[in-house]
Design brief:
Elements (H helix, E strand, L loop, with lengths): L1 E5 L2 H9 L8 E4 L7 E4 L1 H4 L9 H7 L4 E3 L3 H18 L3 E5 L2 E4 L11 H19 L4 E5 L3 H10 L5 E3 L5 H5 L12 H9 L5 H5 L3 H8 L1 H11 L15 E12 L2 H21 L4 E10 L4 E12 L2 H13 L7 E9 L18 E3 L18 E4 L3 E9 L2 E5 L10 E5 L5 E3 L12
Helix pairs in contact: 4-5, 10-11, 12-13
Bound molecules: magnesium ion.
EC number: 2.7.7.7
Subcellular location: Cytoplasm
Catalytic activity: DNA(n) + a 2'-deoxyribonucleoside 5'-triphosphate = DNA(n+1) + diphosphate
Length: 435
């Protein structure tokens, strides 16, 4: 089993595309008052900046960092390249998020699965990831199970390869904190600490009956096995489509309620069309709304019987939107219909699983929407060319003119309604297999 994890992914993409930030502290996340850090570059981590920390605290720890709101189109495109490489290597690839995946090496067509063979394979893979992504590094772990592969990829981050030889798994785990085990969060760890269990070795000494008494049935059996490095979870390449959903991200924060309603209606039409094409219908309608500060909300409503009607889906979606406070501006809207399970698989940013979401082509920039210049966003100036927003306020927007393929560029300021300055988006990638 191989686990690949791109290092400080969002921040690394920003450093790739913004040469003046290479080697400098970069923090990607919500830049507003309630924002949280999604990813900090390793240079920012030195100052104690961490994922999920409030941006306010991050600013106090590392005031000289570049604080950027995310550019999901760039992260998605880079992720697509990496997942493509993995799928070319093995048909069994299970993405966990945009920057992480398991690969089943038993199906990779290798002559054998010796430590030497898989090491050479992984080094070659890391080199190809770096080449395909324009310089991003990946940490890779290889082991006899998902659990061990994931532990291994985390062991010497960043830019590292760790292969755990068969038979050495338990020696590796024993000195580790119990929180290394998936499912052992702060609450479970605290419960164990109270009975004197800190390390995996101490956990290993607990009998299965005791473990079940301590942690409950399901949890107890699971941890008893994992403490012994027993994990036979397979790589699941194709998850059954449990929902149909459509979403769109917007370069300008939407504030006009009528506009949002018409976008939702348009998305509902697309969802209904895809449902009918697939002979599907669903009972639960969900909307997803990402606010200007990166808070992501989803709201659902369940019908008494399944529907594939555009009008019904749109009406429910608009009703759900009516209950949300969107006065601060909205940067993403989505509509989904599901029958069996939750649509949105939330992570820090509330990204839905990639393969289940169809991203809408860019909407015409609405003239009645306030134009915001989010720090980090791509822009183009009629005279100076492409660059990114370095900062804005008091009617002025400051742009650094550079791209991934230029040297660090100069900074210039403009009035924030300068007609020569426009948001820049790459052309939509062609829809290919598997994305
Ligand atoms: Mg990562």
């Amino acid at each position: 089993m191989l686990h690949l994890d791109l290092d400080a992914f969002f921040a690394a993409v920003e450093q790739r595309d913004k040469p003046s930030l290479r080697g400098k502290p970069v923090v990607v996340g919500g830049v507003g008052g309630r924002g949280v850090v999604s990813t900090a570059s390793y240079e920012a981590r030195v100052y104690g900046v961490r994922s999920a920390m409030s941006t306010r605290e991050a600013r106090s720890r590392c005031p000289h960092a570049a604080f950027l709101s995310g550019r999901f189109h760039a992260y998605r495109e880079t992720s697509r390249q990496v997942m493509g490489l993995l799928r070319a290597a093995s048909p069994l690839v299970e993405p966990l998020s945009l920057d992480e995946a398991f690969v089943d090496l038993a199906h990779a067509g290798l002559p054998d699965l010796s430590v030497e063979t898989v090491t050479a394979f992984a080094e070659d893979l890391r080199a190809r990831v770096m080449e395909a992504t324009g310089g991003l590094t990946a940490s890779v772990g290889i082991g006899t199970s998902k659990f061990i592969a994931k532990v291994a990829s985390d062991l010497r981050k960043p830019d590292a390869l760790v292969v755990v030889a068969p038979g050495t798994e338990r020696d590796l785990l024993r000195p580790m904190d119990v929180r290394v085990i998936p499912g052992v969060g702060p609450a479970t760890a605290e419960r164990m600490r109270r009975v004197g269990i800190h390390t995996v070795e101490q956990l290993e000494a607990v009998s299965e009956d005791e473990m079940v008494r301590l942690l409950g049935n399901a949890h107890g059996h699971w941890l008893y096995s994992l403490a012994r490095a027993e994990d036979d979870r397979p790589v699941v390449a194709e998850r059954e489509a449990k929902s149909v959903s459509v979403e769109g991200t917007y370069d300008t924060d939407l504030t006009d309620r009528k506009l949002m309603e018409s976008l939702l209606t348009r998305q509902a039409n697309e969802v209904a069309g895809r449902l009918r094409k697939g002979g599907l219908s669903g009972r639960t309608v969900t909307i997803k709304v990402r606010l200007h500060d990166f808070t992501t909300l989803s709201r659902s409503s369940t019908l008494p019987s399944p529907t594939d009607s555009a009008a019904t889906i749109a009406r429910l979606a608009r009703t759900l939107l009516a209950d949300l406070d969107t006065t601060g501006g909205v940067r993403l809207l989505g509509v989904g219909v599901s029958g069996l399970a939750d649509w949105v698989q939330e992570d820090l940013f509330g990204e839905a699983a990639e393969e289940e979401v169809e991203v809408l082509p860019e909407v015409e920039v609405p003239h009645h929407s306030r134009r915001t210049w989010a720090p980090g966003m791509d822009v183009e100036h009629a005279e100076h060319g492409r660059g990114w927003v370095w900062g804005s306020g008091r009617g002025v927007v400051t742009v650094r003119f550079e791209t991934a393929s230029t040297p660090p560029g100069p900074v210039r300021s403009f009035k924030d309604d300068d007609p020569d300055l426009t948001p820049w988006r790459p052309p939509e990638p062609e829809d290919e297999d598997g994305t």
